[in-house]
C-alpha cells in the first residue's frame, strides 16, 4: 500500500484565508468641507449611490441625498443633464449643509457636461467630483476639445474625476478602429474580447488625455461598467493589471430584486476577493415605491459579510425547519436587525466599534445554544415541542433565561445594555 504522505495530492498547498491584499493604487480625495473621503491606496472600499429624482427639483433631491447619506452612502451621485439641473445643484448643496449633511456630491455628466460646467460655475464648485463618460463627450473633431473643457473645470476647481466607460455608450470610433485591427489578425479575437479591449482602451486613453490636459493623475478614478457578471470580472481583472488608478466597481444595470442582488454580489464578490476595487455601487432597480436605500444596504452587506468593512451589527439567524414551526424567531430576528440599523446613525457617533457586534437569534436547540455562544449576544428560542424558555448568552456565557410574552422587548433591553457597557466612549 502506498504511503499517502508521499502523494502530492494528499498535501495540497495551503490556501490563504480571506481576500487577497488590495492591489496597490493611487489615492484620490473626494471632499466637502470637513468630510474628506479617500479612495484607493490604503483607504477602505467605499460605498456610493445615486439619486433617481429630477435634479431640477432641488428639495426632493436634497431629501433623497440626505436619506442615502443617512443609510451609509459615503458619496452620492446626482444627474446633471440640463441647465435647470445645473442651476439647482448649488441650492441642493446649500440645503444639505443646513441639515449638516456633508456627503460629497458627484455630478453625472453626459453629452453637454462641458457646456454646463462652463455656464454654471457655481454648480462646478458645489460638486465634489465629476463623472465623465468618454463615449458621450462628443464625436469626431468635437471630442477632444469638449473633453478638455471638462478637465479644465476639474483643474480650475480642484475636483477629482471618474472616467466612467459604459458598454452601452462606448466610443464608436474607438470600437470601429479596434474591430478593424482585430479583423486583420491571423486569429481574430471574439466579439466579447474585442468589446472588453475597447472598454479598457477607452478608459486608459481618456485618463492619459486628461493628464495631458493638466489633470492630476492622483485625482483620477476609472470604471468600465457592463451588465454581465463574467464580462465585469474579465474587464476589471485586465484593467487592474494595466493601470494603478483606483477602480469603481458595479454592474451598469444589475436588475430588480434578487436578480440584481445576486448578480452584483457574484461579480463584485469575486473581484473584491482578488483585491480589486476601491469603491462600489450596487445599481438595483427598485420596486415601485421601494426605498432607494436598499442598494446601499446590499453594498454594505457585501463588504461586511466578506470581512472587508463593518457598518452595522449583524444578526445571525437560522433559516427555520420542521423544528421551528413558530414564527417567533423570524419576527425577533427581523425586528432586531431593523432596530440595530435604525440605531446606527446615533451609535456611530456615540458608541464607536458597535458596528462589529454580532447578534444571534436562533430557533431551536440543535444549533441555537452553540451559535448563541459564538455571538456577542445570542438567544436560542424554543422550537417545536421544546420547553418554552429562551436562554440568552453574552460573550459565550449564559446570563439568563427569558420566558413569557415579552421576550422580544426584554432581549432588546439586553442588547441596549450590552452596547452601553461595551462600546460607550471611555
UniProtKB/TrEMBL annotation:
Claim: Transit peptide is one of the keywords in the record: no
Domain IspG TIM-barrel: 35-299
Pathway: Isoprenoid biosynthesis; isopentenyl diphosphate biosynthesis via DXP pathway; isopentenyl diphosphate from 1-deoxy-D-xylulose 5-phosphate: step 5/6
UniProt superkingdom: Bacteria
Region Disordered, residue ranges: 1-27
Function (record text): Converts 2C-methyl-D-erythritol 2,4-cyclodiphosphate (ME-2,4cPP) into 1-hydroxy-2-methyl-2-(E)-butenyl 4-diphosphate.
Protein name per its UniProtKB record: 4-hydroxy-3-methylbut-2-en-1-yl diphosphate synthase (flavodoxin)
Organism: Polynucleobacter arcticus
Gene name of the record: ispG
Amino acid at each position: 500500500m502506498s504511503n499517502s504522505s508521499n502523494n502530492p495530492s494528499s498535501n495540497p498547498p495551503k490556501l490563504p484565508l480571506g481576500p487577497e491584499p488590495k492591489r496597490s493604487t493611487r489615492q484620490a480625495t473626494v471632499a466637502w468641507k470637513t468630510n474628506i473621503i479617500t479612495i484607493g491606496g490604503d483607504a477602505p472600499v467605499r460605498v456610493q449611490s445615486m439619486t433617481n429624482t429630477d435634479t431640477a427639483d432641488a428639495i426632493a433631491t436634497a431629501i433623497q441625498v440626505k436619506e442615502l447619506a443617512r443609510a451609509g452612502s459615503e458619496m452620492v451621485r446626482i444627474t446633471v443633464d440640463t441647465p435647470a439641473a445645473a442651476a439647482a445643484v448649488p441650492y441642493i448643496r446649500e440645503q444639505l449643509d443646513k441639515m449638516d449633511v456633508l456627503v460629497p456630491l458627484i455630478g453625472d455628466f453626459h453629452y453637454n457636461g462641458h457646456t454646463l460646467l462652463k455656464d454654471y460655475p457655481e454648480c462646478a464648485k458645489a460638486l465634489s467630483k465629476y463623472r465623465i463618460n468618454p463615449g458621450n463627450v462628443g464625436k469626431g473633431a468635437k471630442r477632444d476639445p469638449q473633453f478638455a473643457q471638462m478637465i479644465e473645470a476639474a483643474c480650475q476647481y480642484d475636483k477629482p474625476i471618474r472616467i466612467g466607460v459604459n458598454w452601452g455608450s462606448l466610443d464608436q470610433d474607438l470600437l470601429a478602429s479596434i474591430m478593424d485591427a482585430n479583423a486583420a489578425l491571423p486569429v481574430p479575437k471574439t466579439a466579447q474580447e474585442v468589446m472588453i479591449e475597447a472598454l479598457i482602451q477607452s478608459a486608459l486613453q481618456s485618463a492619459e488625455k486628461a493628464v495631458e490636459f493638466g489633470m492630476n493623475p492622483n485625482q483620477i478614478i476609472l470604471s468600465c461598467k457592463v451588465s454581465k457578471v463574467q464580462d465585469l470580472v474579465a474587464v476589471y481583472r485586465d484593467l487592474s493589471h494595466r493601470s494603478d488608478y483606483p477602480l469603481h466597481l458595479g454592474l451598469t444595470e444589475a436588475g430588480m430584486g434578487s436578480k440584481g442582488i445576486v448578480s452584483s454580489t457574484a461579480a463584485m464578490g469575486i473581484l473584491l476577493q482578488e483585491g480589486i476595487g476601491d469603491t462600489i455601487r450596487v445599481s438595483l432597480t427598485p420596486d415601485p415605491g421601494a426605498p432607494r436605500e436598499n442598494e446601499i444596504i446590499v453594498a454594505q452587506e457585501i463588504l461586511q459579510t466578506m470581512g472587508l468593512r463593518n457598518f452595522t451589527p449583524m444578526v445571525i439567524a437560522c433559516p427555520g425547519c420542521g423544528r421551528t414551526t413558530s414564527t417567533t424567531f423570524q419576527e425577533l430576528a427581523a425586528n432586531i436587525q431593523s432596530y440595530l440599523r435604525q440605531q446606527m446613525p446615533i451609535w456611530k457617533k456615540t458608541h464607536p466599534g458597535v458596528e462589529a457586534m454580532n447578534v444571534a437569534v436562533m430557533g431551536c436547540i440543535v444549533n441555537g445554544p452553540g451559535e448563541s455562544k459564538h455571538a456577542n449576544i445570542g438567544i436560542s428560542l424554543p422550537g417545536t415541542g421544546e420547553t418554552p424558555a429562551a436562554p440568552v448568552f453574552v460573550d459565550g456565557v449564559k446570563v439568563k433565561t427569558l420566558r413569557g410574552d415579552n421576550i422580544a422587548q426584554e432581549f432588546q433591553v439586553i442588547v441596549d445594555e450590552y452596547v452601553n457597557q461595551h462600546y460607550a466612549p471611555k
